Amino acid sequence: MGENTDTDKGDLVDQVKSAVDQAVNQQKDRMAERLSAVAEAMKDTGRTLVQHNATAARYAQTWAARVEGVAETVKVRSAGQLVSVTEDFARRQPGLFVGAAVAAGFMLARVLRGDGGGDGQVAGTADAGEPMPAVAEDALRHLTGQAL
Question: Of 15, 56, 75, 120, which sees the most CB atoms within 10 A?
Answer without folding.
Answer: 56
